[in-house]
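Batch 3, record 17
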Amino acid sequence: MEQVRQIEPDLAFIGELMSLGGGDVNKCVQCATCTSVCTLSTNNPGFPRRQMLLAQWGLKEPLLSDPSPWLCFYCGECSKQCLRKANPGETMMALRRYLTSCYDWTGLSRLMYRSAAWELGILGLVASVVVLLFTLPHNFGFGLLSQAGPQALSRVMLNQFAPVEVVHRADTLLALMLGFFLLSNAARMFYRLTRNQQIPASDYVRRLPTMLFQAVTQVRWKGCQAGDAIKNWLRHLLLASGYVLMFTLVVIFLPWFQVSNDSIHWTSFLGYYATGVLLVGAGWMIADRAGKRGEMYRFSHLSDWLFPILLWLTAATGILVHIFRVQNLPMPTYVMYVVHLAIAVPMLVVEVPFGKWAHLVYRPVAIFVDAVGKDAMARSV
Amino acid sequence: MDSAGASDHDGKSILVVGGGIAGITAALEAAEAGARVILIERSPFLGGRTAAFHLYFPKLCPPACGLEINFRRLKNNPRITVLTQAELESLAGTAGNFKATVRLSPRFVSGACTLCGACVEACPAERSDEFNFGLSRTKAIYFPHAMAYPAAYAIDRSLCPEGCTACANVCRYDAIHLTQAPERRVFSVAAVIAATGWAPYNAARLAHLGYGTLPNVVTNVVLERMAAPNGPTRGKIVRPSDGKPPESVAFVQCAGSRDENHLPYCSSVCCSASLKHSAYIHAEHPEVPVSVFYIDIRTPGLLDEFRARVTADSHLTLVKGRVGRIEEDPNTHDLFVTVEDALAGRKSIRKFGLVVLATGMVPQSDGLPSGFERDEYGFVADGAPGFYAAGCAKRPEEVAATVRDATGAALRALPYAVRSGRHE
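Prediction for the assembled complex:
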């Protein structure tokens, strides 16, 4: 006789999940159209029907140890063909939001995903801290500028306003902090995904290149067969190349990238590429989301708006700093520099470890764990 | 077939719109209870969709017996006026006192015809035979199908070559009159029964399942014709691509039904129909495996017994999971069906020789008088007094239920037609 297992549905979980997205798991009749039309869903276990079932029954635990939500790139074919209009694709998106909020051990992510007030409040708080750092201390920002005398107001002397070695030290510290939070969250995710697996460590080591390759190329996206998957993948790849380059310039090469006066350096050209790609890529995504062009953009959570908008604003204000500097407009350069950081820093603090940007680690980790699991399954057959 | 006018007898007539099993039943029940009946049918023959069936479920007996008994009852009942190629053009008045205007398209062939067939041989034009869903062709002058009632030729004049009179020239009985004009007839009627039936869901809208591009993806109604001995393949179930028997067959349930992108309602008969079709296949090819991919197998009431009987065959597998994708091997035209077995949680691609889409029922209620209620899908309900609906125009249902339903509709219409009337 089969073992009888009593299921206790976690109703609060069902409610929370549905509040994070536009899908309605209660409409699902488990017809399995979604899994069979999905070109990324593999044979065993497939998605998203299984996730719809688990969500419907309030089975939070199996979902927390399921990599599948991160294996989906939201082409939306499942939602389009869903005969009950239950929007399984959007439920997978809601699961990604929910899981992001659960992987984070500080609880900040959950607060921000559940409440727009928390999200905007924390963004505002970090922005205020940035502005205060430039206005309050006498040996930095506007305080330092006043010590430099009138010449710093007649020609651009950015290092007299924000000394590059101080900024470089600060951004390195910020990068380390954000990296710590992000990686510790990713470690929690990895633990959740693998704790019930009996797979030797060597199998994981062997698949590490898969993780790195997917992180860099996001090539799995290409497997979507929906019409615009290739476009979406390339656009995302372009955007990723832009922010990776910008991040490298700022965190590693800032002494060369932050030019003090109105001269142009080789780093400027790399900056042009990154800025151009970020403005076009993020702007295009914002426009698609505003126009609800495609399944992926039919439902929007606040986090879906904030990330590309802040990214776009970061790039826009960054290029304005550059323009003002080479035009030798001292005060506009300094002010725009503060505005730029008052957008970029909150964005990074909120999005990288606690928000949507965290997918840059979660996706490759999930693909990695899934690949290791499939290897083990293939071997046992 | 004289006009059942109001002035020359006591009671008024009941008008039955639609000559399928529902309309025939309603007409017979009302007439045998003493009313006069005018039965109008748009096509050139009675019997409707039922005439195209190979066997009925659950008893798996041929419709010939049921329909032929009914045709004999019709022929022998002087109270029934049967008008084919007839459409209700307008209806005015109230219950007990309607004026119905019926437009009769010309048949071009008179009662002098002896069915000798010389005209068919002489006819130079061809038409796609819609009775066989285009799987066969007939001449422009054609005998609708083996069981057709009335047993008479019909002509699709839109296909006749300009000025062609070949059929009339060859007819030795002067039975063909190509200049016959359409006519209008007005009847006084007491009540109207809508028995306008159903059409299979337009499979062209199921292109994602390969219909229309993959030759071996067919619909259930086509399979029904293939299985019928009077059908285009003379009762052989074969693959359209090569005419060979399939090595395996898949049924895709809810092909359009229960789907908010297509028909949001359950068509109620397709599960039993596919089980019946699997019985056809096993009768013809006992070793051919059949898989039915379903969301739920819906065989309510006594049909559950039928299901148990059919599924006892070990060559039939029921799999919970709706088919999402069908592709083909372009060389062999074998089909690859992508489906997730939802109970096992396993997605797979399975190979089949023939795939049957279990398309649902779409009510045919366009052009009915406004006295009828119609829901958002076009299903007809009884409307104002004197307006009654029967059969699949009202809800998707099998033949047996249609017969019961039509009997009920006749009973509700009768009080308006018998002399004492309904006192309200």
